[in-house]
Amino acid sequence: MYQENITALKKDAPIGVFDSGIGGLTVAREIMRQIPNEKIIYFGDTARTPYGSKAVSTVRKYTEQITDFLVSKDVKMLVIACNTISSTCLDMLRERFPQLPVIGIIQPAAQKVASICSEENSIGVIATKVTINSGAYQKAIKDLVPQCNVAAKAAPAFVPLIEEGIIDNEIMDLTIHYYMDDFIGDGKIDTLVLGCTHYPLIRKNIERLFPKLRIVDPSREIIGRVKKVLAERDELAGRDNDRENIFYASDLSENFTNMIEKILETERSNLILKFKNLEL
Question: Which of 157, 187, 194, 258 qualifies as a cystine partner to 199, CB 3.0-4.6 A?
Answer without folding.
Answer: 194
